[in-house]
Sequence to fold (184 residues):
Amino acid sequence: MNRVVAPASCRRLALDDVLNAREARARRQQAWLCQYGQPVISATLVWPGEVKDTPLARQVMAEAKEAINQRLQQHRWRIARQEAAFPVTGPEALWSVSSPAWMIKHVMADLEDNHPLGRLWDIDVFCPTAGLIKRSAIHQPMRRCFLCHESAHVCSRMRRHAQDELAQRIEEITYDYFSGQRSA
Fold:
């Protein structure tokens, strides 16, 4: 069954939009953990700014979904359910996967670190018993800022970089990736 997906909203967000979307996603993640009793992968984008549901953001999420699905197939992990959504707060996707959460987290961290678009993806893994599996739990370093290579968490919290700088870097990353695909 193919679902018709509305075009990107390109709407500016209010803080309430972001907080409500985060709560709704957390409820879906928890519901899936309870319903399926196996780990859940949650993919969103690292997409600074007030407009997050854009055609380019959807294209980047499509690549994330494809890369995640390829990795899950390579490992022959059974997917109980998969779903994508396109709220005004940006594209997101969930998978319920039959495999140990720590193994899934290793594979997803590798994708974030090594795929050309991986720096733009935020791939979380939740365990039905342990909750969110952090990088530190699998002995992986924290993610780095894609501008200055300091801790991404610290740069984000301190708002070290202007939105224009971040948007320009995202444009460069996506242009390099998608223009390289066309010439390949």
Remarks:
- The mean pLDDT is 91.
- The chain is about 45% helix and 15% strand.
